[in-house]
């Protein structure tokens, strides 16, 4: 048996992130959390903090075999109320942090001939979005561009890059920013009439991280109960 694979999960202290950590740990990974409140403490809105956290991972564990960028947040702003500082902070966390982490961890993945990079997007980009979700939907769509480009960049090196796009998942963070009744409306729009839970996304991530997904790269797994079909 080879060395235990090291999985780094951003936002690993949140509802979906912690579910990902638990499922990856159960599948045999040594899991490392990058978050504001747990594991290796990191401010993902800061490039220098993100780069320092990546360096700490390599110093402590010597490698990253699986990178899951789950950190992200909503900051509702319609165009008329757009604040550039808030826009840039959201993009830094939701999108740019993934670039700094890949740049830090990919060389080791290349050297070992193995790597998994998994970005958590959203199915919201495929539906007509509410005006105030402009920053969030833009960031999650941008991640798919990042994912496809990195899949091509690192394919010859044995690194697979894919994404998971959850639907409206029942988490405390989601309940804090969406209107009352939004979760019930989401369930009504799904083919599978049940609330989506963090473990739905976590199991999709675990599959992409596994040897069973060795032939998959540049792909999006949609975990939204059939609300969007492609």
UniProtKB/TrEMBL annotation:
Keywords: NAD, Oxidoreductase. It comes from the Bacteria. One of its GO terms (molecular function) is oxidoreductase activity. The keyword Transferase does not apply. PROSITE patterns: ADH_SHORT. Pfam families: adh_short_C2. SMART domains: PKS_KR. Residues 5-167 form the Ketoreductase domain. The keyword NAD applies. Gene3D superfamilies: NAD(P)-binding Rossmann-like Domain (3.40.50.720). SUPFAM superfamilies: NAD(P)-binding Rossmann-fold domains (SSF51735). InterPro entries: KR_dom (IPR057326), NAD(P)-bd_dom_sf (IPR036291), Sc_DH/Rdtase_CS (IPR020904), SDR_fam (IPR002347). PANTHER family: DEHYDROGENASES, SHORT CHAIN, ESTRADIOL 17-BETA-DEHYDROGENASE 8-RELATED. Belongs to the short-chain dehydrogenases/reductases (SDR) family. This is SDR family oxidoreductase.
């Amino acid at each position: 048996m080879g060395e235990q694979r090291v999985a780094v999960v951003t936002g690993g202290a949140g509802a979906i992130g912690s579910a990902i950590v638990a499922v990856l740990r159960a599948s045999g990974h040594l899991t490392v959390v990058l978050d504001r409140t747990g594991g290796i403490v990191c401010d993902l809105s800061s490039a220098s903090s993100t780069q320092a956290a990546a360096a700490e991972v390599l110093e402590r564990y010597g490698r990253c075999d699986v990178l899951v960028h789950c950190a992200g947040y909503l900051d509702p702003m319609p165009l008329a109320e757009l604040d550039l500082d808030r826009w840039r902070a959201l993009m830094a966390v939701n999108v740019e942090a993934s670039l700094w982490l890949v740049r830090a961890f990919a060389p080791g993945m290349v050297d070992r001939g193995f790597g998994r990079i998994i970005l958590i997007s959203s199915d919201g980009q495929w539906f007509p979005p509410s005006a105030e979700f402009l920053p969030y939907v833009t960031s999650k769509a941008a991640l798919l561009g990042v994912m496809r480009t990195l899949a091509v960049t690192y394919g010859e090196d044995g690194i697979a890059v894919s994404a998971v796009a959850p639907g409206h998942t029942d988490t405390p963070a989601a309940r804090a920013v969406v209107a009352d009744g939004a979760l019930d409306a989401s369930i009504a729009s799904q083919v599978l009439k049940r609330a989506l839970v963090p473990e739905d996304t976590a199991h999709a991530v675990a599959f992409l991280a596994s040897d069973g997904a060795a032939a998959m790269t540049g792909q999006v797994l949609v975990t939204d109960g059939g609300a969007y079909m492609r």
